[in-house]
Design a protein that fits this description.
Elements: H1 5-16, H2 18-43, E1 49-53, E2 63-74, H3 83-86, H4 89-100, E3 107-111, E4 122-128, E5 135-141, E6 147-154, E7 159-174, E8 179-194, E9 202-204, H5 224-239, H6 243-259, H7 266-281, H8 286-301, E10 317-325, E11 328-335, E12 344-352, E13 359-364, E14 369-375, E15 380-388, E16 392-398, E17 405-409, E18 415-418, E19 423-425, H9 428-446, H10 449-458, H11 463-472, H12 478-481, H13 498-509, E20 520-522, E21 528-530, E22 540-545, H14 552-564, E23 569-575, H15 579-588, E24 594-598, H16 605-610, E25 614-615, E26 617-621, E27 627-629, H17 634-645
Helix pairs in contact: 2-4, 5-6, 5-7, 6-8, 7-8, 9-11, 10-11
């Protein structure tokens, strides 16, 4: 770690008055930074998003949390070198803590991207509980072009607290508005817990070395073929690297997009997009996902199809929420940029709103990305906008109670919306959307999947079918999804289908007849086991779950299945849980069968091997270690078991 004379002097002062500084000051500075970080996380500044970590609870012995932030805005370039002038208020208050509370810290590390002195390229935090009978390690890489602040506090109760902040700022000249955009993004981590018995709480860690990345310099003579070759090379490196290597490759891709001096044809833009889109879909780090998304946007701005009114893509992660299947609930996560590549269309929208409404706002649906807002005067509104064809839009009122809303899609016909009557006049497609979208939402709330499937089958030539399919895809089998996963379906390439494809690809990995994957998991005593120990020699039901979304009804049904089928072995695999809470939950819910714990949350290797993007999920494995079925819920589990018995 980097030492400076000032900090050495302060540490000597520490030793002179150990009781005062250790008991009072360390706790004070540490807690103040904790509170400032909480305030920033709740502020919404810099598009702050919560990352990995556990919920904070005073009863917990240890926890960790993270926040991602990003912003693109216009400013004077002279401000970039001074973070206090460019950070928003809550972020700036937290940032100042790294210098204001340095006299209370036991270890610090500062590095600015412009510094020429050596830097660490990662840290390892080893966090334990009070009894020191378990230890979890967290590895965080640091990119060479990042600004870094790390501060470690020793707490009076033998615990430690680490704050780590990394951020990057890039200035990009935008010829469309003839000024500079500042692309500012970063991450903040907080780790809190007891120091393990045989390891430091925090230490530098040497992360993976990157492969050689291509030169990103873009001379004026650079041809498209050279650009494409460099993008393909970097994308290939990205696919085979670890966390730090992926970040380095992501930075190179962004610089390639920023430095390319020529205009891209529509075909060239799509070719580049096809190189980068799979990287976005395969990336779990939200900060990197945003950087890749902004890279695509930069290429888009240099293409012939660019429309200045289009907005910058947001983070590229969408949570579809809780989906009901009978008594079973399922939480689905998928990752996509949700970029509509349809050709731009310009349409007029007019309408009537409540007299007390002040404006109408538009968002892309269902990714909920803001498009624009327009004033309402005397209960009327009207505007013209350009959007990619088949963009699905939600329009809603502000300033009145209750709010009114309507759905429409971008096609070539003028749209007339009467929010008072709930009607939309225009193309046949928009009339059908207005008449049916709310009906689909109501059917979904009631769990009437068959009725929604009928709407999908009857409207294959309407975007309504893609939206309806999006709302229930996690409740369908692979055979039910396949008719919509090929080019014979009109909306095969629409953003609404991206999560459907990802989910179907996961189902393919656990299809009947495939060998059951193996993985390392730990038991309640922190002993590691291979999953193959339990998936050979006896029919086994694998139950993948998570404490934050589990249902007591589900676990009760599992107990009933356990009692009804004594020859069936059940293995419940919890995805990255705080060990103490996990053990308590297993005991409380009388889960009297094999229980194992997987690391790394949704990024766990076992999630990747089984193609899981939703929880809970079930996989039935035969005594020979081959997958029999992947039932979509416990009703299907019992149905499959009954058939196998007969």
């Amino acid at each position: 770690m980097k030492n400076r004379a000032l900090y050495t002097l302060l540490f000597i002062t520490f030793l002179t008055f150990p009781d005062f500084h250790t008991i009072v000051m360390a706790q004070s500075g540490s807690q103040k930074m904790h509170d400032l970080l909480t305030a920033f996380g709740e502020s919404g500044e810099f598009n702050v998003k919560k990352g990995f970590g556990s919920d904070i609870d005073d009863t917990k012995e240890a926890y960790n949390r993270s926040f991602y932030f990003n912003e693109v805005y216009t400013t004077d370039l002279t401000q970039v070198s001074n973070p206090t002038k460019i950070f928003t208020p809550h972020l700036n208050a937290f940032f100042r803590g790294f210098s204001e509370y340095v006299d209370e810290a036991s270890e610090i590390y500062y590095h600015d991207a412009k510094d020429s002195d050596p830097m660490i390229n990662g840290i390892q935090v080893n966090c334990s509980g009070k009894e020191r009978n378990w230890c979890e390690s967290y590895h965080q890489g640091i990119k060479p072009n990042e600004n870094v602040r790390i501060i470690l506090f020793d707490e009076p109760d033998e615990r430690c607290r680490v704050f780590m902040m990394t951020w990057e700022q890039q200035a990009v000249y935008d010829s469309t508005i003839t000024t500079n955009n500042i692309f500012n993004h970063g991450e903040i981590y907080e780790f809190y817990g007891y120091k393990p018995k045989h390891a430091p709480f925090m230490a530098p860690r040497q992360m993976e070395h990157d492969e050689g990345l291509p030169d990103v310099a873009a001379p004026k003579t650079l041809e498209y073929a050279e650009l494409l070759a460099k993008v393909k090379t970097t994308s290939n490196i990205f696919k085979h690297q670890g966390w730090n290597g992926r970040n380095a490759a992501g930075v190179v891709l962004h610089k390639l997009s920023n430095n390319y001096p020529n205009t891209l044809t529509k075909e060239q833009y799509y070719e580049l997009l096809n190189c980068i889109q799979p990287l976005i879909d395969d990336t779990d780090n939200d900060g990197l996902k945003r950087l890749l998304g902004y890279t695509c946007y930069t290429f888009y701005k240099k293409s012939q199809i660019y429309q200045p009114t289009d907005s910058i893509p947001d983070q590229g992660h969408v949570d579809s929420g809780t989906i009901g299947t009978g008594q079973i609930s399922k939480n689905v996560q998928f990752k996509t940029m949700m970029l509509n590549a349809g050709s731009p269309v310009t349409l007029k929208v007019n309408g009537r709103a409540p007299i007390d409404a002040t404006k109408v706002e538009l968002i892309r649906y269902p990714q909920m990305e803001h498009i624009d807002k327009y004033p309402v005067k005397d209960g009327r509104f009207g505007f013209t906008l350009t959007l990619p064809k088949e963009e699905l839009v939600l329009l809603y009122t502000s300033g009145c109670q209750p709010e009114k809303q309507a759905f429409f899609t971008a096609d070539c016909k003028e749209v007339e919306i009467d929010l008072m009557k709930g009607t939309v006049t225009g193309s046949r497609q928009n009339k059908l959307i207005a008449d049916s979208m709310q009906h689909v939402l109501d059917l979904r709330a009631k769990g009437e999947v068959d009725s929604i499937m009928q709407i999908i089958r009857n409207n294959r030539d309407n975007i309504l079918s893609a939206d309806a399919l999006y709302s229930i895809f996690s409740e369908l089998s692979l055979d039910e999804l396949r008719p919509y996963l090929n080019e014979s379906y009109a909306y095969y390439n629409h953003p609404l289908m991206n999560p459907v494809r990802q989910y179907a690809e996961g189902l393919e990995k656990r299809i009947a007849g495939k060998p059951c994957p193996d993985a390392e998991l730990q038991d309640s005593e922190n002993v590691l086991h291979h999953l193959r120990q339990y998936t050979t020699g006896k029919k086994t039901l694998l139950h993948f779950w998570n404490l934050s979304i589990y249902s007591t009804k589900q676990l009760k049904r599992l107990r009933e299945i356990h009692e009804q089928y004594p020859d069936l072995q059940i293995v419940s695999i919890a995805i990255y849980q705080y060990p103490k809470n996990w053990r308590e939950c297993v005991e409380k819910n009388q889960m009297d069968w094999v229980n194992l714990l997987a690391p790394d949350d949704w990024n766990s290797p076992i999630m990747q091997k089984f193609g899981l993007c939703s929880l809970p999920e079930y996989v039935l494995v035969g005594a020979d270690g081959v997958i029999i079925d992947a039932p979509k819920n416990l009703d299907e589990v019992e149905k499959t078991l009954r058939v196998k018995e007969e």
